[in-house]
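Task card 7
Instruction: Convert sequence to structure tokens.
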Amino acid sequence: MSANIGNVPPLRICEFDDLSSNDVGCSQSSVSLFFFAKVKLARSEVGRLATGERRKKTPRFVEIAAAAGVSASTVDRVLNERGSVSAAAREKVVTAAKRLGVPRLLPQTRHGLIHLDVLLPVNDTPFFRRLGFALQRLMEMLDRRIVVHRAFLPEHRNDLFAKAIRQPPYRRQGLILAAPDTEQVRAALLDATSGGEAAVAVVTNIGGVPALQYAGIDNYRAGRTAGYLIGHLAQNSGRVVILSSRTDYQGHVDRTAGCRDVLARFAPRLVCDVRTVETYDDPDRCFLGVASALRDGEPIAAIYNSGAGSPGVEAALRKYGIGRDICWVTHEMSDDHRQYMQSGLLDVVIDQDPDNQIMAALQHLLFKCGVVEHDPLAGERVDFRLYFAENSRQTPYLPDIR
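Output:
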């Protein structure tokens, strides 16, 4: 018995241990794996033909048409992208093909450009710069029909955030934003999402908007983690100074609340200052807050900064010469934080992973637009990371663009 396989000449079908130089014109040791694969394929095909067994077939156009409730010619036009098919029929065919497990790359159900907005505050801190670079890298990998518009708005201009949310100059399919949790912003988001538009918050959540998704970390748990670390790493008993960027960002409110809750319950030797110093991520405000605390009242055992402005904290600790006696925990990995940890001033950095945040937010919008099949926000929130001097990398966290 012999079989033809493509351009391979007829071969005598035999078991591998029956091969000899007389069988195939070469020694058994020189027979290649490619030849064995061809022989085995020929045996299986011949066996199926002899027994009447047929290879499992893939769904035919008529089966897809029956499942979709359309004609077979419509299925042909959709799957081979010949055009002249309504959006509703295209959706039915592609959905039916996915359900039947058609083993081919299926066409997209949406035509035309997909406009997405990303609204971010004007903020030059290392974290927001990392977030911007992460977004840029993702945009370079997107299909050309997905258009991402970026807008940077002053943090204190809630009216501009509200206007950008309500009045895009194009038909927008989705929105990503990092914005203050204020009445104007909430009202604008309620208007946008009530019309069916997908919206995702990153960095900090915004309450009172049921349809708004959140792609950030659990900031309360991050704050509790800070309290846990301070409770274990602080060498002395005494005060804990709490610095926070802005009290109109829910993320900072949650972080400081989590830290206070853990310390109050599990570390009675450490007492948080009643007042949270609002710094607006400004190093000068951080310096004044720490310097004032060092001059007044009981000795300081620890500093927790939920935002940026660390150069001011570092300057105050060096000026008063007590940096190594105070436990310092802050947020977001950066090149200056790496240097502070290596010098022994900074103990731990809690990082909220801007790359994964912006990726999860963008993937969610593409899921809502029917471009991808899986929603990354259907499960747990993005994890945060802990960095110490021992596990921070040696290369820069931000590219040198000078």
